[in-house]
């Protein structure tokens, strides 16, 4: 070798060792450039692993020089049995005893000697497992990468953004075609100057303790495109520039229109014929939606009609970058469901108590009485049990004042215009379940109940939630005619108030507009500090109805600031 000079930078031996897996893996590169990958039992004594490394390294040398038999014979025994001495030294320079189990022996910073070669052990270094950019990039809209990592957290990763070089920028075509931008944040908002250019992101995984792993790069599949200019939510953002103080909670409820429903032939031709087809595409709408939600600086966001892939690949990574943790509940038999996001530095999650209405009705003792009543009306019972509607219930605790807890419920009730009786049964199940959580499991904690209730303020469902009861002669029990009447009187113990009042409409499509969405709050514990105004009628109807190039859903987000009494 090189006269015993220490290597400029010691080679690395990367060890991956996690409690949930029986084996640890070891990866290093031999001096001849061949890569060695080994899996050893975590409980195996170190001596056995070192012996295996020695024979493995020797095997490599034999192969490396593909010599003839004659040449090998001339080398004598030396060529055959060049098994190097292999030892492991701990950080303080002491040799690690051979009986120490692998899991304890291979510590970060230890040094592995294989003959003359030395390797610094890196145990569980930060590593990126996924790095993706959204398919569609719009100028003026935040680009939020999806970052998945092991032994690292996105908050502590390093980000460097590059843009494609324009042909006019000069420079040799063979030269690097990327120009670094000034941006070094996780979220990048391209300016109009970048329209027509692709982006590249270089991400280095970090664990927050000054350890960094190998960087990865990802290039956008297409160029930055021009955005739509003004959106319906721009004026609303003027009210929500900052996160509100610790004594307040900003809540948002929003049906974001599932891709499952937006992209059907029926939607394009019958429901939303006025909407430009490109504005119904999920990638376009997600750009608008992420900008809209990020700009509300909310503490709680309850969403309905969330496609599973939209949650996993788009919303959860984006809102994570803005400080929000997300929870998802799928509707059985469907590809969409509910999502609840909460601000991480304001709340921690104490528990999740989600249910599917039909399942809970049949199996939980809590609803036994209602179930028995419903059995008298087989037609209605069958309809209720066919629905896949769910209720998402999350119990949160304030990080600054642990005595403050919240029961946050989120739902999307049956949609059919004549389904008032079905919705009454669903809301009865919901209120019983919320009572169980907010009165029994966590005695007397305040309730915030968000959702698309598919019920106008004149409906039985709205009346039941607000007044605490419904009579058996209410007209909604016969919403679908006499043969589907199912009269019962129901009650619940909460004093709930619609925090945003009763707007003229929260859903505005070609053939219908009405108020269907609400944020109900516990009047005893919470009060309304401010309601963020809805967009003007003029803004909503600029492109006839919703959705449009400047509004991503057929519903409008409700936003209010609440404070503890």
Verbal overview:
Mean pLDDT is 93; it is low at 1-7, 62-68 and 75-79. The chain is built from 16 helices and 31 strands. It folds into 3 domains: 11-56 and 85-123, Roll (Ubiquitin-like (UB roll)), CATH 3.10.20; 127-169 and 176-219, Immunoglobulin-like; 233-564, 4-Layer Sandwich (Deoxyribonuclease I, Chain A), CATH 3.60.10.10. Helix 14 links the parallel strand 22 (405-412) and strand 23. With 565 residues, the chain is α+β, with helices and mostly antiparallel strands. Strands 19, 20, 21, 22, 23, 26 and 29 form a 7-stranded mixed beta sheet that branches. It starts with 10 loop residues before the first strand and ends with a strand. Helices cover 25% and strands 29% of the residues. One of its GO terms (biological process) is mRNA processing. Its main location: mitochondrion. Residues 60-70 have a biased composition (Basic residues). Residues 253-555 form the Endonuclease/exonuclease/phosphatase domain. Residues 57-78 are annotated as: Disordered.
Task: List the keywords.
Immunoglobulin-like; alpha+beta; disordered N terminus; 565 residues; single chain; Deoxyribonuclease I, Chain A; Ubiquitin-like (UB roll); seven-stranded mixed beta sheet; six-stranded mixed beta sheet; transit peptide; 3 domains
Rg, rounded, reads 31 Å
Number of domains: 3
Sheet/helix structural class: alpha+beta
Number of strands: 31
Chain-averaged pLDDT: 93
Report the CATH superfamily of the largest domain: Endonuclease/exonuclease/phosphatase
- Anisotropy-based shape: globular
Question: Which architecture of the largest domain would the CATH scheme give at its second level?
Answer: 4-Layer Sandwich
Please write the CATH class name of the largest domain.
Alpha Beta
Extract low-pLDDT stretches: 1-7, 62-68, 75-79
End-to-end C-alpha gap: 77 Å
| CATH topology annotation of the largest domain | Deoxyribonuclease I, Chain A
The largest β sheet comes out as: 7 strands, mixed
